[in-house]
Specification:
alpha+beta, Rossmann fold, Dna Ligase, domain 1, D-amino Acid Aminotransferase, Chain A, domain 1, nine-stranded antiparallel beta sheet, 22 strands, 30% helix, globular, binds glycine
């Protein structure tokens, strides 16, 4: 059997879980992770590459005989790493720049959805020079809440739900003052607020054939009961009981198929992982956002459920052979609790010693996100530090197992949400 030298790009909990899953593949020869983290270092070889320097990445690929590149985060995809490497005949799993626009530009995504009749919230787009027009538009509309979104990538910090005219006014001023945000908001999308429950569906596509891998629910707010600031994600569980078979069929036919076909028609065939963020409204499922990669921390609960060999699926996707594959997942629930540094997502300390990492039970997975090595110890090194993943036959069991494991791990000023999965519990009968 052919085996592959693989380079995985990224450094978060998502990439640790991808590395963990790929390392189980019979098709793997050597796994390199750039730059990786102390978790991935136990599975493959971390390489301290600046992944925004595509020439350096290519030199490394040539030197090590890399046969496949798997890209974890959105940044390099939106910047065109797939195009750059494919031009040099290197197989890459991840969409090309034009296709990654589904995440890279909200305006592009919204206009695409209108063109292909994919259900989403009504919207209007304004350039940064027209903020006064945006304000007048919102005043005339006079319906709250209303959603303001920066067009470009803003690391999850570019979306504002405003409950009044005053809030819109002060938010527009704040966007103008913030340099990074005002760059991402050189165009501003004003969007109707959708009432409902959010859920994420993860799809693998080779440009023509696509399969749903699984679904999950994220917890984006910092505080229990979905309160406080937005974060990269404080925990996830999978599958989400809100997604009935009927809903999944609708999502497939009303959203996923038209998206994949639409991208073909746009001559930007979509290869890689497509993350579809949905709102389940009274009128049915509607798209909140597309992302061009796995979610973090959703990936950490999805991949342990996948019975397929992930590398085999990825190879099939890069060779346009996904029609030969079908997805198999187990029937367990999984829960992921993110251990964060107190103060995240605003201001927090780093460099705290982490204890208890080897004390969790065998069926618990601990993925590293923001950690570092020093003098034989593992220290905190970012806002989101670790992802603890437990499983169970029921959602309640999965949640309990995960929180039991969380108790064993410690660092100074460790913060985590206590209610991951509770929304799902309300929907299942086996309480
Ligand atoms: P996005 O980056 O587009 O996913 O937005 C971040 C979060 O804002 C989403 O996960 C939702 O919780 C919320 N959100 C975004 N757009 C809407 C909308 N039109 N209606 C309600 N909530 C929204
Ligand atoms: N957890 C949300 C994201 O990955 O975008």
């Amino acid at each position: 059997m052919d085996t592959y030298n693989v380079l995985l790009i990224g450094a978060g909990g998502r990439e640790h879980s991808i590395a963990w899953k790929i390392s189980q593949s019979e098709k793997l020869d050597k796994l390199y992770i750039a730059p990786g983290n102390p978790g991935t270092a136990k599975i493959g070889k971390n390489v301290p590459l600046d992944v925004s320097d595509f020439d350096k990445v290519y030199d490394f690929i040539e030197n090590k005989g890399i046969e496949l590149v798997v890209v974890g985060p959105e940044g390099p995809l939106v910047d065109g790493i797939t195009d750059f490497l494919r031009e040099r005949n290197i197989p890459v799993f991840g969409p090309e720049k034009n296709a990654a626009m589904l995440e890279g530009s909200k305006e592009f995504a919204k206009e695409f959805m209108v063109k292909y009749n994919i259900p989403t919230a009504d919207f209007a787009v304004f350039s940064s020079l027209d903020y006064d027009d945006a304000f007048k538009f919102i005043q005339l509309k006079d319906t709250y809440p209303i959603v303001l979104k920066a067009d470009g990538l803003a690391g999850g910090k570019g979306v504002f739900i405003c409950n009044s005219e005053e809030e819109v006014k002060s938010r527009l001023l704040a966007i103008k003052k913030d340099k990074t945000l005002s760059e991402a908001a050189s165009k501003l999308v004003v969007e109707e607020f959708m009432e409902g429950e959010e859920v994420s569906v993860f799809v693998i596509s080779d440009g023509h054939t696509s399969h749903i891998i699984h679904n999950a629910q994220d917890h984006k707010r910092i505080g229990d009961g979905d309160t406080g600031l937005n974060t990269g994600g404080m925990g996830a569980y999978s599958p989400a009981p809100i997604l009935t078979e009927d809903l999944l069929v609708r999502i497939q036919s009303e959203i996923i198929e038209p998206t994949i076909t639409g991208m073909q028609l746009e001559e930007s065939a979509y290869t890689g992982i497509l993350y579809v963020g949905l709102m389940i409204t009274e009128e049915g499922p509607k798209v909140v956002e597309y992302n061009c990669r796995f979610g973090d921390p959703e990936c950490q609960v999805i991949l342990p459920s996948l019975n397929n060999d992930l590398l085999d699926l990825i190879i099939a996707a890069t060779e346009q052979r996904l029609d030969e594959k079908s997805i198999q997942t187990d029937d367990k629930y999984r829960c992921c609790v993110v251990l964060a540094s107190e103060g995240y997502p605003v201001k927090y300390e780093k460099g705290k010693v982490i204890s208890g990492l080897d004390e969790t039970d065998e069926d618990i997975l601990v993925f590293h996100a923001g950690t570092t090595h020093k003098d034989g110890k593992i220290l905190t090194n970012s806002g989101r530090v670790l992802n603890v993943v437990g499983s169970g036959k029921t959602l309640r069991g999965a949640i309990e197992n995960t929180y039991e494991a969380v108790k064993k791990i410690n660092f100074e000023n460790c913060y985590f949400r206590k209610d991951i999965g509770h929304k799902g519990l309300k929907r299942v009968s086996n309480l």
